[in-house]
Design brief:
heterodimer, A: 289 residues, mainly alpha, two-stranded antiparallel sheet, B: alpha/beta, six-stranded mixed β-sheet, 35% helix, disordered C terminus
Chain lengths: 289, 247
Amino acid sequence: MQWLNAIIQGILLGGLYALLAAGLSLMFGVMRIVNLAHGVLAMLAAYLGVVFVNNLGLPWFLALVIVVPIMAAVGYVLQWGLFNRAISKGGLAPLLVAFGLAVVLTQLLQQIFSADSRSIQIGALGTSSIQVSDTIYIGWFPLMTFVVGVLVIAGVQVFLNRAPLGRAMRATSDDPETVNLMGINNRQVYALATALAMATVGLAGMFIGTKTQFIPTYGDLVLIFAFEAVIIGGLGSLWGTLVGGIILGVAQTVGSQINPSYGLLVGNLVFLAILAFRPQGLLPKAVTT
Amino acid sequence: MSPILEVSGLSKRFGKVVTAEDLAFSVEQGSAMGIVGPNGAGKSTLLSLITGVLPADAGTIVYDGQDITRLSAGARSEAGIARTFQIPRPFVDMTVFENAYVGAAFGGDSHGQAGYDTAAEALEITGLLHLADVPAGQLRLLDRKRLELARALATGPKLILLDEIAGGLTEKELPPLIEMIKGLHESGVTVIWIEHIVHALLEVVDQLMCLAFGKVLAIGDPHEVMRSPEVIEVYLGSTFDLGGAAS
């Protein structure tokens, strides 16, 4: 029974990882940018949550509604101000710019908020749960996180498949030069893609900042979890990212069940096994050339 | 009749390689102009300069009475300039319909149902409607060429630039393509068409320009241009010998 419980908790945790990884997957899918600042940007969102909820006393859900558009705006500005310039330099430049941004932003958060660990307060919702059986409890907050994770993945996927702007993003991903001849400004598309990615990061930051005690450098771990979810699932596939997140989550909770200190280790071993035996991931994007 | 496109003093060089030097010509609204010239003459570069994918080093491009020399490629597309590529560049991961729809929604600025209708119409004209849901990456060459045309048409162009659209097709595949371009021309769209298959070109165009080494060698009536000594020399060498001219 405790194993079943571990798997259920792992699936719920996977929703959080998928939510974390959605933005990383989107930015890579549309622009081939490996955003090494992804984790620390999630921390930025988490600290915004701390300011609005803990310091200013706003309700948690109101803070969420404020943080998400702020992060979207941050993404839009970052893309125009940094990444668009880096992309035109080609190859390695966006990666290095993202790395530099991660370093600067981590230090900045350290400077402002110190290295004391913080957490966004959510009150009773954080601890209340539903009893499923004698030994299995499902927390409302993890359940809510999972549902939001699935909705974000599904929403972004439908957006990319159906919405005119989503189609423009796929076309731009395919051939950024030719789309200009279709009346699309590829840089504007990039800026909107990053804005969307950072909106999901805003959500992820709020949820992870509420679930865990965090410090500015916690972004490194967040980045690794997001990467693992994306790569297990297969680059460029959002549904794959959801599957990857769930596999990572289950691996970690089952590992913790074996021994409380094995959680991260087992998660990383599963990731390593995927890299070794199925490097394209479980659900890679169907590539046609 | 007023010119839809007036190019003057247009120059572009890549390092020491001159691909356009002081080009000047104009194209009448609703006409069709062919461009011929040996490889490396700067034909494709000229199209890139007109669509704005490449910035010009010098000179001006006036389109529909407006100086567009400094306008972005996206803005020029919205203003009604469309182009097809010599080597088709479809969005391979999207369906044929979505390819056309992207052109309609952004270049043609027709959204929602209007965008779907425009895209469907472009596919119908180019004979691709039955392939609408096929991923563009799976198309064979003729259909890829058609899709280039469909996507360009969906943007609602006033001026369409065709880059060797007949290249690589068999003699049997040519006539339907020529009919399609004729139909396009008759519907009032101005056509500028680069092509090595001269007989295909001569069926449609009413003006012909020959480029060589980034310069205009000859321009005017298509048959006269093809007969002019300069053009014959560039194509066949100075010692004109019919026996060796087959290629």
